[in-house]
Amino acid sequence: MKTTIGLALLASTFLLSSCIQYDKDKHKADYRKHLHWGYSGETAPEYWTEIEKNSDCGGAYQSPINIIHRRTDSMQIQGDLKIQYTPTTLLKEVENNGHSIQFDFEEGDSINYKNETYYLKQIHFHEPSEHKINGLIYPLEMHLVHMNKSGNITVLGLLGEEGEESQLFEFFESFLPLKNGAVKDIHQKVDLSSLFLEDKHYYSYTGSLTTPPCSENVNWIVFKEPIILSVEEVIKLRDNMPLNNYRNEQPINDRVVNYNY
């Protein structure tokens, strides 16, 4: 009799602890439904599929990825990418959107990729880098976001390496610091042709935005050769953004990554 009562109590205790754990898990899931995505704690990238229910964040063709050079398909450049930046690109404004520092552009500059014209919309930054090359994480990644008339996107990803001071980054950072949510009008010219992107080799693949809604309509062009900026410039950008504002590496799955040289 005592044995029967003991077993019953043990079973009840197990069921109670299971229910408590279930309730905790359910509470966490319900709590995340009301959160806005971010980069830490309950809003971190691993929870974006729960937080952003109508997004593509759980898709099979997500970004960023780790690019392993020896696994890429090498191909000689045949005019797939034509960069048409001028020394008179007009910056409209800069915003601290809570996720990154973002510079928005007036309509004008563009690139041509696979015979499609994509117009430069904005530039923003991630620290450390989101893409990796052969597992190497860089201190910074700069994204130049372009869109065509159909709404498809081509992003140029530039990895940043610490070294000498960059005049371009000095110009960008002259508008900082900027508080979270603040917007500052600029309406000044910036010379993006100084990046000399037409001289760089690049990797290309089909992926997604690296922030929600993680839309999978993005042509990625990640340049092999990094840009150089000073340690101080890296730190100044970092101090105006959330700590570690990068998305974790995503599976490549059945995608092909091309190396264009």
From TrEMBL:
GO MF, one annotated term: zinc ion binding
Cofactor(s) annotated in UniProt: Zn(2+)
Entry EC no(s): 4.2.1.1
Domain Alpha-carbonic anhydrase, chain residue ranges per copy: 35-261
Keyword list, A-Z: Lyase, Metal-binding, Zinc
Catalytic reaction(s) noted: hydrogencarbonate + H(+) = CO2 + H2O
Domain of life where this protein originates: Bacteria
UniProt keyword Lyase present: yes
Pfam family of the protein (one): Carb_anhydrase
Family note: Belongs to the alpha-carbonic anhydrase family.
Function: Reversible hydration of carbon dioxide.
Name of the molecule in the record: Carbonic anhydrase
Organism of derivation: Hyunsoonleella flava
Taxonomy of the source species: Bacteria, Pseudomonadati, Bacteroidota, Flavobacteriia, Flavobacteriales
